[in-house]
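Hi there, hope your week has been kind to you so far. Do you reckon you could talk me through the fold, stretch by stretch? Thanks so much in advance, here it is.
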Amino acid sequence: MLEVGGEAVIEFDGARGTAVVRGWRIGEGGYVLTERPTGKIPSFPIGKEAVLRIKRNGTLYGAAVKYGEHLKKTNLCYLAFSQDLIAISLRKLERVSCVLPVSIRKETGDDDASKGVVVDLSLGGVKIICSVPINEREEQPLTMSFNPGGMGTVSGQKLKIVRSESVNGRHEYCGQFPEIPAHNQKLMESYFNFCKTWTE
C-alpha cells in the first residue's frame, strides 16, 4: 500500500508538502517513516496531527497521523497512525469525456513542450492522445497545462504516466495526478459542473 520510495502528500496546519516514504507498518501501533517534507509545510510540533495521503495504482490511501519525533540517526520523520488507513478508489471520482488541447513538459521546464489532447479528465487523473511520444522517463517528472472550457488555465499540474499505448501512429497515455494545487482543482471542478449543465 504505502510503497517504499513512493511520494506521500502531508497536510498540516493549512499547508501541504511532499515526502518520500522510507518505511511503514500498519495495524496496532502503525507508523510511517518519511524524509523531511518539502514545500510550504512548517516544522511539526511533536504530538500534532497531520493528514498523510499517497496514490498507488488508482487508489488513494489516507490516514490521520501524529508527528512522533525526528530520528537523528536516519534523518527520518516518525509519523504514528492515529486512525486506520482508509483506501478510496480514484476510478469512482467524477470524470468527463472532453477534447481539450494540452501542453506537456518536464517539471524543470527546460525543454520544448509536447502537444496533445485531453480526452478524459477527473481529479484522479487524465487520458491524453498525442501524435508525438511523450518523454515519460521516471527521473524526469512531467507537468501539464490546459484550459478547461475557457475558465482559466490549469498550469504546472504534476502528471505521472501509469499506462501508455501506441496504435497507428497515435500515442495514448493514462496518467495520475500525484497532487492537485487548490487553484487547479477549483478550475477542474468548475469545468465538471459546466459539463453537467451546458446542454440545458
